[in-house]
Design brief:
The complex is a heterodimer. By secondary structure, chain A is of the alpha/beta class. In chain A, the strands form 3 sheets. Chain A has a 4-stranded mixed beta sheet, covered by helices on one side. Chain A is flat. In chain B, about 35% of the residues are buried. The radius of gyration of chain B is 33 Å and the shape is flat. Chain B is of the alpha+beta class. The chains are: A alpha/beta, B alpha+beta. At the A-B interface, helix 3, helix 4, helix 5 and helix 8 of A face helix 1, helix 2, helix 4, helix 5 and strand 19 of B.
């Protein structure tokens, strides 16, 4: 039986086979069967779960080595009833629980709470900073000051506002048990991070948290216009075309731009109304459109997105875009 | 709650069979006769070896965790690693006034003093206890020869503690290993201990050491001591090592520990205190006059294992600071033995939000006088919350509010499956319900879950085939007689909507317009009426109830008497959700045994040609002492569940 070592950090076998060392030396030659029998017994002891608990003894309180059921018992001692099921990495959480308790009530604790319990970031704000104060330079009259009157709830001195993507009903009770300073109003704000739909019409402007006691909703989109761009564009993940990189499209299309196009031409070009706002529908594939005067071309009078939005790749080829390929597909590596 | 070792896995015979199978499966032993005497003996030895090893390992495993340890010493050791000091016995305390009348005594002194340790005797039942003063008390001649002794705060209420004073002396030996000084007394009240260190055995000058738990800062020269419970139940005194927790006594020093050996909870309730001595003035003894201000209370036995198991993790989470509401509960329960239960909630969760406040509600030992309760509350504010809470957060106290539950339990009972009668079965069910409340409710945060109770009833006997419990809530209020008064009575949960068949709100009876009346709601309405015993309406609208807020309002209610003879009226309502009643804040759920009952319906599990015919037997419990009455009826219905 060999000495077992766990990741070079602990020797933990309590049942090393010392049969040959303990018994008189002549037993080995005189009673080989007995020696073999006893060694077989130790093999049995190693394999039987009845005695596996002996192996556990060394690592009972070792957070890295304790079994799941032993971790539960450690959680019972130091985690105030929180189950390990809450945590993606319960061992890491156990290592930091004491520190967590020491800083309860602080911004650090609030941030740690959301990272540990929900793997989320949180923004901690103190609404008292927005409460209008007389004779304060920071609080002037007018909408620009963004000051609010004390309302006896969120906007008063004893108040904390947490902004996270999780509804307050999910975390309120746990947060109050572990972190929240009693006596303070607890405000929750659901922060929505949404990506624009390629249809351009279903951008998540706001999502109501019907359980929140305070509802202030903000909408964010990772694809809204950066400085200097006057049009809202959408971002298409790289598709199965021949080029690399994402595709950018103009989102606020208006149907009036197609008003002079005949139904036949519209059908031939887009197939459906949905196709008209699908940027991949017009393929700019000149090879397949020879002889068709209505098909979209780079100089087409209707579809001019290339001209309006995107930079030229050179003065000699003013309407080409970065990543233009001769097959007719267009990809973009930059859009501004 | 500790877990139990699964001893069936450690059974000797099973281990031996398992070992034999293992060996027989190996090629080299497949032809062995394991039943032969020699090899069988070896197998016995090896199986016993396995058995004892596994058993010992399981013991060790269980003792390794606070929640599973069985030994008190293990539980205390785990609690200590969490920084939790377990509680020793505590002395009962009483408050008295002491005075001396020297009127007419020539040459009487201006001031008379009584030293700390002056003793009194008192009896509780047949047992006699000794109580001691805890400080020097002085009294000044009021001009007429009357001396009223004062405490250190200048008031006449003198605190005396039960116990006998003991002194244990140690001599510090050679420097070396860190030394623990064991005080061989398991009756010690550690809170009464004082430690003095003398330079040598003959010295009369000493240096006092303080408790480490009271330390504000610790340096290598600070003089602090700790007293903790030893594995054998005695107490051990230890000091710093000159580095981490302050200075340790030096070789050659003498250490004196003075403490009270106390009887704990047995000494609670003492009401008459007799001085052991008279006061000697100018060579003549004069009697000390004693009046009892508050009977003795706060005496407690050594902290139980379960209490340590429950409170050590909470105290660890609190880290001796008051931030979350749970912290308030943990620290108060740790420091005040006379507080049996505590709860706290932030002002933001109060019925009327009150930011910057934390509300605390306490349950005291039975018999605690209001004045004593106030002393404890003041102490909590002065010594605990003012020092440990977030600055600017104030503490407010709210009395516990008891909401009584009235349970009507009915169950189908097959007498052929049991040796007891249906009356006995009903009585057993009633006892079970009472025990259920004792075990799970009657405390802050106790939630009534009907399905849990039903499971216990169903498991009580195979003869109980199925069961059902109807739940009502009851709040008590003391009406002002003969004066029109309005009341808002708040329940801890939502209330049921009005019904077209039965009233949802009722009271017990009272006298109104010289008639016996009660309040009921108008059917299908939230309006409350006063109905007399002839079912005639005396007042058509005496108030209403709000299902959502759980508030029952009475307007201008003017009873002239209460027929029960009590000072309160019971107001009974039906909760919107009878399956779960979860009290908030300072509400405590308790059982009102008077209207509660358990009733058996005979069900012989035979197909019957008639419906709804059976025999029922009902038992109600009229007091917590277990007295019960029963009645039988041949027309009880067993249908409906």
């Amino acid at each position: 039986m060999s000495l077992q070592v766990v990741a070079d950090r602990q020797n933990y076998s309590l049942r090393r086979n010392f049969v040959r060392e303990v018994l008189p030396e002549y037993f080995t030659s005189e009673y080989p069967n007995l020696i073999a029998f006893l060694e077989a017994y130790y093999d049995y002891a190693d394999s039987d779960e009845t005695l596996s608990v002996i192996d556990d003894l060394y690592g009972l309180r070792d957070i890295e080595r304790a079994t799941i059921s032993q971790l539960d018992l450690i959680f019972g001692e130091i985690a105030s009833g929180a189950s390990r099921d809450y945590f993606a990495d319960p061992r890491e959480v156990l290592r930091n629980f004491a520190n967590f308790y020491r800083v309860k009530g602080t911004r650090y604790a609030a941030e740690g709470f959301f990272r540990a319990f929900y793997s989320e970031d949180v923004v901690v704000e103190f609404p008292k900073e927005k409460v209008f104060l007389l004779n304060s330079e920071q609080h002037t009259l007018g909408t620009e000051s963004l000051s609010v009157l004390q309302d006896g709830a969120l906007y008063q001195i004893f108040s904390v506002l947490l902004k996270t993507s999780i509804p307050i009903s999910t975390w309120r009770e746990l947060y109050k048990r572990f972190v929240h300073p009693a006596g303070f109003y607890l405000g929750g704000e659901v922060v929505i991070e949404g990506k624009a739909s390629m249809l351009g019409t279903s951008m998540p402007i706001s999502i109501e948290d019907s359980f929140a006691n305070i509802l202030t909703v903000e909408g964010f989109s990772s694809n809204f216009a950066p400085t200097g761009l006057t049009h809202t564009v959408g971002l298409l993940p790289d598709g199965p075309d021949s080029g690399d990189g994402a595709d950018y499209i103009l989102l606020p299309q208006v149907i009036s731009r197609y008003q002079n196009m005949s139904a036949e031409v519209f059908y031939n070009t887009y197939g459906t109304a949905m196709g008209a706002i699908d940027p991949n529908s017009p393929t700019f594939d000149e090879d397949s459109t020879v002889g068709d005067p209505y098909v979209i071309r780079m100089s087409n009078a209707v579809e001019t997105m290339d001209r309006e939005l995107f930079k030229k790749d050179s003065g000699a080829n003013p309407y080409m875009l970065d990543g233009y390929v001769d097959s007719g597909y267009v990809t973009f590596t930059s859009y501004y | 709650m500790a877990t139990a070792i699964q001893s069936t896995k450690l059974d000797f015979e099973n281990i031996k069979i398992s070992l034999r199978k293992y060996l027989a499966a190996k090629d080299e032993y497949k032809d062995f006769n394991f039943e032969a005497a020699g090899i069988n003996n070896i197998l016995d030895v090896l199986a016993y070896n396995t058995h004892f090893n596994a058993l010992t390992a399981n013991f060790a495993l269980n003792e390794a965790f606070l929640n599973t340890a069985q030994l008190r010493s293990s539980v205390i050791a785990h609690a200590t690693t969490l920084g939790y000091e377990t509680r020793s016995r505590t002395a009962a305390e009483a408050n008295i006034t002491m005075s001396l009348n020297l009127n007419g005594v020539a040459g009487r002194p201006n001031v008379v003093s009584i030293p700390a340790g002056f003793s009194f005797t008192s009896k509780v039942g047949e047992q006699t206890f000794t109580f001691l003063t805890t400080e020097l008390h002085s009294a000044t001649d009021d001009g007429l020869g009357v001396y009223n002794f004062l405490n250190s705060e200048g008031t006449t209420s003198i605190k005396i503690k039960e116990g006998t004073k003991f002194t244990k002396t140690f001599f510090v030996g050679e420097a070396g290993e860190r030394v623990l000084y064991v005080i061989p007394d398991n009756t010690m009240d550690t809170a009464t201990a004082s430690v003095k260190v003398y330079a040598d055995p003959a010295s009369t000058n000493f240096v006092s050491y303080s408790r480490l738990s009271e330390a504000v800062s610790v340096t290598s020269t600070s003089r602090y001591f700790q007293i903790t419970e030893a594995p054998n139940g005695f107490y051990e005194l230890n000091f710093g090592d000159g580095i981490s927790f302050g200075k340790s006594p030096e070789p050659g020093n003498k250490i004196e520990v003075e403490y009270l050996s106390v009887q704990g909870a047995d000494a609670n309730g003492a009401s008459t205190f007799k001085p052991s001595d008279e006061i000697l003035v100018n060579g003549v003894n004069y009697p000390l006059l004693i009046n009892t201000v508050a009977n003795s209370l706060n005496g407690s036995d050594v902290q139980s294992i379960e209490s340590i198991r429950q409170n050590a993790p909470i105290a660890y989470a609190a880290q001796q600071r008051l931030v979350t509401a749970e912290d308030y509960k943990a620290v108060i329960l740790k420091n005040y033995t006379s507080v049996l239960d505590a709860t706290a909630w932030g002002g933001e969760d109060n019925a009327i939000p009150d930011y910057g406040k934390v509300y605390v509600s306490l349950v005291f030992q039975e018999g605690t006088l209001d004045s004593a309760k106030q002393v404890i509350k003041d102490s909590i504010v002065t010594n605990v919350t003012n020092n440990l809470s977030i600055i600017s957060i104030d503490t407010k106290f709210a009395d516990p509010v008891t909401t009584f539950l009235e349970l009507g339990a009915t169950f189908n009972f097959d007498p052929s499956l049991s040796g007891v009668t249906e009356q006995t079965a009903a009585s057993n069910v009633m006892s079970l319900i009472t025990q259920f409340f004792t075990d799970n409710l009657n405390k802050f945060g106790g939630v009534f879950r009907r399905s849990n109770l039903l499971s216990e009833i169903d498991n009580l006997s195979p003869a109980i085939l199925n069961s059902r419990v109807e739940v009502k809530m009851q709040q008590r209020f003391e009406p002002t007689l003969n004066v029109p008064t309005s009341y808002d009575i708040t329940f801890p949960t939502r209330l049921a909507a009005p019904s077209s068949t039965v009233p949802m709100v009722t009271t017990d009876t009272f006298i109104f317009n010289n008639r016996i009346c009660q309040i009921k709601n108008r059917l299908n309405s939230n309006v409350l009426q006063i109905i007399n015993s002839s079912a005639a309406v005396e007042v058509d609208n005496i108030g209403s109830w709000d299902e959502t807020t759980g508030v029952v309002s009475l307007v201008g209610f003017t009873p002239t008497g209460i027929t029960s003879g009590q000072s309160f009226l019971k107001l009974t309502v039906t909760p919107s959700n009878q399956a779960t009643i979860k009290p908030l804040r300072n509400y405590i759920l308790s059982l009102d045994t008077d209207p509660s009952f358990a009733a058996a319906n005979i069900d012989r599990q035979l197909l019957s040609s008639s419906l709804g015919v059976g025999v029922s037997s009902q038992v109600t419990s009229s007091s917590s002492s277990g007295s019960s009455s029963s009645s039988s009826s041949s027309s009880g219905s067993s249908s409906g569940y």
